[in-house]
């Protein structure tokens, strides 16, 4: 390798090392980009109604904070009260479920009993993953100064990105070579459309799951219905893992009243998740956020391992953006063009022979004379 190539390689390694050291800040910046993209789309809608840009931005930010404040005023107080009840009810429900399994094992053939799982063993196996996820979430959402600073940083960055989105977009595009900037601008358009699709789909799906869970739990007269419904709606933001985790406390609490209620809760949650996964989400997102289930699960584990709970929460939008950049840059612009020779443009000259014009291809200067 030449000296210039070595310098370039060292510069890339140093850049990757720096990006790795500030990965938490980059993740917060990405969260701000997702929020600002959503609010910017809302502001553009207001502008289409005749509102000026400044007023449209203020309306979008006002609606955003109104939703957050309304959530904390209406949902959080009863949720905290009912969540405290969960800490007492869930262990009792799990213990009762274990006793029911022991009775069931005693009645089945001896050859089948070893294959019936034990809740305590399942909890022990899942405890490292749960502790990691919950520990990271409590660390991020706790009232500590670090968590508060992170939230403020996201809000400030959101406001900055929303005030002049085109200026920050042009700054990002200028980081690329001039011949590739138009291409990057088109890729950013696709990322913006996909993020908007994810936000709309995730928000509506979350409201659907929460509302239907609330209705089902109230019909079954399961205690702490509001807390369980909010938990199921919030956990729906985490595909695959979230719905599975949210059904466990609901079944444990229902089991305290009667075993059939636990089975009924499982059926209700299963029907809700099936309708949401097969009809609601595909109808909203269409083809904008199409990911293979295995890719989604692997991405969740990857981002959880490196970024904690916030990485798990943003795993899907991160995967969507990563997929677009990989598909457009690596596959279309690099791999699909690998080994292809650029087509030569044949130049023509006009010569006159016997008063008749003929088009004769001009000899390519790169080809030697051939006698």
Report on the structure:
The protein has 371 residues and is mostly helical. It is 77% helix and 3% strand. It has 14 helices and two strands; from the N terminus they run ααααααααααααααββ. A hairpin with a 2-residue loop joins strand 1 and strand 2 (356-361). The longest helix is centred in the middle third of the chain and has 40 residues, at 181-220. The protein is globular. It starts with a helix and ends in a 10-residue tail after the last strand.
User: Uncertain spans, ≥5 residues at pLDDT below 50?
Assistant: 137-143, 344-371
What percentage of residues falls in helices of 4 or more residues? Answer: over 70%
Strand order, largest beta sheet: 1-2
Q: What overall form do the CA principal axes indicate?
A: globular
How far is it from the N-terminal to the C-terminal residue, by CA?
Answer: 40 Å
> Could you tell me the number of beta strands?
2
Order of helix and strand elements from N to C terminus: HHHHHHHHHHHHHHEE
């Amino acid at each position: 390798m030449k000296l210039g190539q070595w310098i370039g390689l060292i510069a890339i390694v140093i850049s990757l090392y720096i990006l790795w050291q500030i990965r938490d800040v980059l993740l917060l910046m990405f969260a701000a980009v997702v929020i600002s993209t959503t609010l910017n789309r809302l502001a553009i809608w207001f502008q289409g109604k005749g509102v000026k840009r400044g007023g449209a931005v203020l309306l979008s930010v006002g609606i955003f904070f109104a939703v957050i404040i309304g959530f904390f005023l209406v949902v959080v107080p009863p949720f905290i009260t009912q969540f405290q009840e969960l800490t007492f009810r869930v262990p009792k429900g799990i213990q009762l479920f274990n006793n029911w399994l022991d009775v069931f094992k005693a009645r089945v053939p001896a050859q089948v009993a070893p294959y019936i799982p034990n809740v305590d063993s399942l909890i022990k196996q899942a405890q490292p993953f749960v502790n990691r996820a919950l520990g990271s979430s409590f660390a991020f959402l706790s009232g500590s100064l670090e968590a508060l600073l992170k939230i403020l940083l996201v809000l400030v960055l959101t406001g900055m990105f929303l005030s002049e989105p085109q200026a920050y977009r042009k700054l990002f595009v200028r980081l690329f070579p001039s011949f590739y900037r138009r291409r990057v601008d088109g890729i950013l358009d696709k990322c913006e459309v996909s993020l908007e699709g994810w936000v709309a789909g995730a928000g509506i799906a979350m409201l659907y799951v929460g509302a239907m869970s609330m209705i089902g739990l109230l019909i079954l007269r399961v205690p702490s219905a509001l807390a369980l419904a909010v938990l199921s709606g919030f956990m729906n933001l985490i595909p695959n893992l979230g719905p599975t985790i949210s059904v466990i406390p609901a079944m444990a609490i229902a089991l305290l009243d009667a075993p059939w209620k636990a089975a009924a809760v499982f059926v209700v949650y299963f029907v809700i998740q099936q309708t949401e996964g097969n009809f609601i989400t595909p109808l909203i997102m269409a083809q904008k956020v199409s990911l293979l289930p295995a890719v989604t699960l692997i991405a969740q584990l990857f981002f959880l391992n490196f970024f904690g709970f916030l990485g798990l929460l943003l795993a899907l939008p991160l995967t969507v953006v990563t997929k677009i950049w990989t598909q457009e840059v690596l596959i279309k612009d690099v791999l699909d063009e690998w080994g292809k020779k650029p087509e030569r443009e044949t130049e023509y000259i006009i010569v006159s022979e016997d008063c008749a014009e003929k088009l004769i291809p001009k000899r390519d200067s790169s080809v030697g004379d051939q006698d």
